[in-house]
Amino acid sequence: MWSEKYRPQIISDMVGNEEARAAITEWFVKWKKGTKPLLLVGPPGIGKTTIAYLVAKQFGYDMIGLNASDVRSKSRINEILTPVLANVSVMGTPMIFVDEVDGIHGRSDYGGASALVDILKEPTVPIVLAANSDDSDKMKGIKKVVKTIQFKKIPPRLLRVYLENILKKQGAKLSPGALIKVIDKSKGDIRSMINLTQSLVTGFNPQTEKTFENINVEDGINAFFKANSIEEARVVLYSMQIDPREKINAFYSSIITSDLDSSTLAKYLEIMSEADMLFGKIMKTQNWRLLRYLNDILIKLYQNDDRIRYAQYNLSW
Q1: What span, in angstroms and rounded, lies between the C-alpha atoms of 245 and 77?
Q2: Number of domains composing the chain
Q3: Which of 140, 173, 206 is the C-terminal boundary of a domain?
Q4: Domain of life here (predicted)?
Q5: What is the domain-level CATH number for residue 94?
Q6: How many C-beta neighbours within 10 Å does residue 85 have?
Q7: Do both 74 and 179 map to the same domain?
Q8: pLDDT digits (tens, 9 = 90+) for 88-134
Q9: By CB count within 10 A, which of 110, 137, 216, 301 is most buried?
Q10: What is the domain extent for residue 74?
Q11: Within a 13 Å sphere around the CA of 194, how many CA atoms are in the beta-carbon half?
Q12: Model-level pTM?
């Protein structure tokens, strides 16, 4: 998949928001125990999560990635973060990244927000948060104890130059009108823009896939294993419009962290191995048309099994 192939490997590979990227780099250069955590704010798809992974890689940190569902309760925060914060020397050089932190509030918040603020007040490791918006009144407590860096929507002219460079590397072309439509439809989401461009150039998406509403990875994994039929599960798979590596990793981490008997786990892992080998072959041969078979492999995982719930993974760079 082109979005995987052209995933930024270093910070300078990213497009747009140069001032924000420079400010983040400077924060890491100057970081010391007690430094205010960072809050990255901006629309989805413009690189907040990407730069968190890249700075962790550049500065030699082991990133511990969480999202809103991981930090909605005080007990869950203590379960995940207390061992990290109490054993920094044992854990190596950890960095904590909490994505979609603006989503921890509401009826599902069981003390998570206040517990997180307490940790943010006295950080012993670098902590970076990301949010689509910080306008909510419920974000006020977090905003008081962090340094906020705003990410702006990337100008269409920069997106066009970025996209034209990818097309040139692929030896492919789109008409000026098609480029404009792709950029407009993606609404500044770079990954979506690249995936849409690839679908127009190569037709890698199954035709039926275009009829499904997109769902995020957490909802997708949970819905897949709650589906009442294999047909319903298949619809969920096609609705998870994410990078294939991300989809494979999400299923894998959710399976291995669930309470499964050894025979069931072995069956699941055999299927995951098949999916991983297919993706490895795609990356080696660059034959992206093989991607159409990924969901055919993953559907073999289906059974109505409420023991399996989404568990976030940490991509290793």
Answers
A1: 27
A2: 3
A3: 206
A4: Archaea
A5: 3.40.50.300
A6: 17
A7: no
A8: 554 458 888 988 888 776 545 567 778 888 888 988 889 999 998 88
A9: 301
A10: 17-150
A11: 21
A12: 0.63
Specify if 183 maps to a domain. Answer: yes
Q: Which of 130, 150, 170 is the last residue of a domain?
A: 150
Structural domain contains residue 3: no
114 and 173 co-located in one domain: no
Residues 271, 167, single domain; the answer is no
User: How would DSSP label each residue in the chain?
Assistant: -HHHHT--SSGGGS-S-HHHHHHHHHHHHH--TTPPPEEEE--TTSSHHHHHHHHHHHTT-EEEEEEGGGSSBHHHHHHHHHHHHH-TTTT-SEEEEEESGGGS-STT-BBHHHHHHHHHHS-SS-EEEEES---SGGGHHHHTTSEEEEPPPPPHHHHHHHHHHHHHHHT----HHHHHHHHHHHTT-HHHHHHHHHHHHH--S-GGGGGSPP--HHHHHHHHHH-SSHHHHHHHHHH--S-HHHHHHHHHHHHHTS---HHHHHHHHHHHHHHHHHHHHHHHH--GGGGGGHHHHHGGG----TT----------
Q: Quick: pLDDT tens for 63-87.
A: 888 776 666 667 777 777 777 676 6
DSSP per-residue letters across 52-85: HHHHHHHTT-EEEEEEGGGSSBHHHHHHHHHHHH
Tokens encoding 271: 């299927």
